[in-house]
Amino acid sequence: MRLHGTQRINEQGHLEIGGCDTVNLAQEFGTPLYIMDEAHIREICRRYYQSFTQGLKNAEVIYASKAFSTMAMCRIINQEGLGLDVVSGGELYTALQADFPAERIYFHGNNKSAEELAMALKAGVGRIVVDNFYEMSLLNDLAQGMNQKANILLRVTPGIEAHTHEYIQTGQIDSKFGFTLSNGTADRALDLALSSANLVVKGVHAHIGSQIFELESFSHEVRVMIQYMADIYERTGSLLEELNLGGGFGIYYASGDEPAQIEDYAKIVRNALEDACEKHKFPIPKIIIEPGRSIVGTAGTTLYTIGSIKEIPGIRKYIAVDGGMADNPRPALYQARYEAVLANRAAEENAEEVSITGKCCESGDMLIWDINLPKVQSGDLLAVSCTGAYNYSMSSNYNRLPRPAAIFAEGGKADVIVKRENYSDLLRNDVLPERLAHLPMASR
Ligand SMILES: Cc1ncc(COP(=O)(O)O)c(C=O)c1O
Ligand SMILES: N[C@@H](CCCC[NH3+])C(=O)O
Predict the structure, then answer these.
(1) 374 to each of 92, 342, 377, how far by Cα in Å?
(2) Can you tell me which residues bind substrate (predicted)?
């Protein structure tokens, strides 16, 4: 397993994260456990801040909180000077409860409800990214009713097919997101927004997909979007000043992944921007980017305890852990690949090829196929790396598994940021109606 951030193998041969021995973490907090490497998250935030916010002069980096949304995470993002992308009332609520400054929040979503939009207006979020005509008129009416003007970006679908898993592509024309650029829908949307009394169009937004390695996809996006902004100016006389390029920067999960450097990403965007603006004689707009995965992905490790082991001679050895698709649905959803190490015997030589399965009642509940590990025993600890993004945030209670705890590990200290769920948490919203109050068997 490749080590990330502060991960290291200590003198006991144990995996250490944030100066904490993961064997001790398992004892103290139990497993499964999401361990977040706080220093690593901060370092990535700083690299983004330096290369974009400072490197591009007029730019803002906003963290896509869908990747990992908790109050503690919002605090870190705020401390590091980044803005925040939220995509639901729940993410907005989390941010506001963490005292995240509303004016640095961007509100996304392809089907925001009236309640969510009203909540955003009331809180005074910085930008609402309008995705469709229904939302546009809803927002205009709500803003009017609240005697406000809503600052918006228009989400457009630029017709770019980024090279990534088709389920996480979003820039192609056949997409549920945004106004299509190529068939004139985006123009109609813009005209309508410009004539809406309670909307102020600040700029445009596009997001071409996620886990993208080819930086050329982003320069292509810049060229398409600047051309669009120049066309808008020519056609309507409106000079839009903000261009939000979305997120999507890819990260390392397993061997074969070759992500680019954040600094090169910034350079590519800057060069493409300068060239395109020069070509169209268009003033350089403010650039906003929305990384999610690349801020938290490699900073997360999930720690499991190994339980049952099933060997089918000549075929496969299944090693089962005390979690699975309920805490990490990505392998089942996207055939995502992960690496892992035995946290309590991290320095030992590999001795066998096994496959890691979860404890859910699904054959598809596989975390890792065909991984080499030392001879595994029940009771060993398995650490799966790069689980910081879209694991906790997409976790479920399938099979009524309580969600794991999440901790920040930093400087030899570990703090719980999300408590482990217990069985009574699972029943928190269960209700037994009066007519089911009686235990005896129903009469037939
Ligand atoms: C609009 C928008 N912005 C930002 C992101 C974050 O993407 P990523 O986690 O790939 O950086 C997403 C998710 O793909 C998104 O839909
Ligand atoms: N959740 C997805 C990506 C979608 C990101 C949100 N638009 C993943 O884990 O890769």
Answers:
(1) 44, 8, 9
(2) 293, 330, 334, 362, 390
What is the Å distance from ligand 2's center to 118 Cα? 26
What class, spelled out in words, does domain 38-296 have in CATH? alpha beta
- To the question of domain 8-36+298-426 being in CATH 3.30.365.10, the answer is no
CATH 3.20.20.10 in the chain, residue ranges: 38-296
Quote the CA–CA distance of 14 and 153 in Å, as a whole number.
48
Domain span(s) for CATH 2.40.37.10 in the chain: 8-36+298-426
- Known binder of ligand: residue 248? yes
For the question of whether the overall pTM of this predicted structure is more than 0.80, the answer is yes
Cβ(160)–Cβ(224) under 8 Å? yes
**Strand duo 316-321 + 352-357: pairing:** parallel
**290 marked among binding-site residues:** yes
- Which SS3 state, helix, strand or coil, does residue 106 take? strand
Place of tokens 């035995």: 342
* pLDDT tens per residue across all 444 residues of the chain: 999 999 999 999 999 999 999 999 999 999 999 999 999 999 999 999 999 998 898 999 999 999 999 999 999 999 999 999 999 999 999 999 999 999 999 999 999 999 999 999 999 999 999 999 999 999 999 999 999 999 999 999 998 877 666 656 566 778 899 999 999 999 999 999 999 999 999 999 999 999 999 999 999 999 999 999 999 999 999 999 999 999 999 999 999 999 999 999 999 999 999 999 999 999 999 999 999 999 999 999 999 999 999 999 999 999 999 999 999 999 999 999 999 999 999 999 999 999 999 999 999 999 999 999 999 999 999 999 999 999 999 999 999 999 999 999 999 999 999 999 999 999 999 999 998 887 777 666
Considering the candidates 45, 74, 277, 361, report the single residue annotated as catalytic. Answer: 361
**Distance (Å) of CA 282 to CA 29, 206, 234, 271:** 55, 19, 10, 14
DSSP string, 224-235: HHHHHHHHHHHH
Give the binding-site residues of ligand 1, using a 6 Å CB cut-off. Answer: 64, 67, 85, 108, 170, 207, 210, 246-249, 290-294
Complex prediction ipTM:
0.98
Structure tokens at 270: 């800057």
Whether 20 is catalytic: no
Q: How far is the CA of 320 from the centre of ligand 1 (A)?
A: 32
